[in-house]
Amino acid sequence: MSSAQCRIVVYTFFQIGSNGGHRKFIRIKNLTSLLGKLNFLKTQFQDGVLHSLKLEASLRKAIIKGWHSYTQVQPSAISDVEWWKSKIKLNKGRSILAPSSTSATVTTDASREDWGAVLQTNINKSIAWGVWPSQTFLYSSNQTESRAILCAICHFEGTFKKEEINSIQILSDNSVAV
Predict the structure, then answer these.
(1) Per-residue pLDDT of the chain in tens (178 residues, 90 and over written 9)
(2) Using DSSP, how many helices (H) and how many strands (E) does the chain show?
(3) What gap in Å lies between CA 73 and CA 70, rounded to an integer?
(4) CATH number of 104-171
(5) Where along the chain do its domains lie?
(6) CB neighbours of 38 closer than 8 A, spacing ≥ 6?
(7) Pairing between strand 104-110 and 168-171?
(8) What is the pTM of this model?
């Protein structure tokens, strides 16, 4: 979650939080948006699912009123709001992938007409590019990006063997292709 998104979530939590013992009203649309952002954060906090249940219950009860109406969050959900506030403020973020020791990084990009790749190793940096043959039929961006990755690996094959590179990190703007 970016710092701007974090500020928005914390601000929304302060809107929900108790103000001198009085509950505040919150727009149902904003509560729904907040719960959507919390769903994104549930992967980082294992207990997050449990601390969203009361907020979701408040939303289910209030949704009957309409998208643009206001509701009060259940008093029992305020402690969950405080839990989320503390977790988000202390969140440093972590990758869901375990760090691996890669010997090289190949970054690729492709368009309908051509492809390009950059190989970064501990020793040097190499660039490769090419134009698709006229008989190549690539129907989707997934096919195009996958083909660019394949072309890059084939192009840099000699470098991989020469430098004895056993693991490669592939970076692409298409997550399906990787």
Answers:
(1) 566 666 666 666 666 654 544 556 788 888 888 888 777 777 777 787 788 888 888 888 887 888 888 888 777 777 888 888 888 777 766 666 666 677 899 999 998 889 999 999 888 899 999 998 877 777 788 888 998 999 999 999 999 898 888 888 899 887 766 6
(2) 6, 6
(3) 10
(4) 3.10.20
(5) 3-90, 104-171
(6) 9, 48, 52, 55, 84
(7) parallel
(8) 0.45
